[in-house]
Fold:
Amino acid sequence: MRDLLFATMILVVLSVLWIIARAIILRGKCLDDEEIRAFVRGKIDGSSSEYQRMASHLGTCEKCQEQMRMIQFGKPLDEHLVEE
Ligand SMILES: [Zn+2]
Structure:
């Protein structure tokens, strides 16, 4: 009985570690154009884990935010270049 409890605990710890590791790996990965396009056009289910990943990544990654603006407005933000 104690062995079963121990095995269950190990399993719980491992699955928690797996979830954390997976979240870190997925969040670190940049979105590609297709993913951002689908996100912008509302093609991703808002309750899906995919949406959660994209939303949290877009919240922290400037590169993907820039990419999203380009897809939304069809051109890069280049106001800072115009001033010269
Ligand atoms: Zn990114």
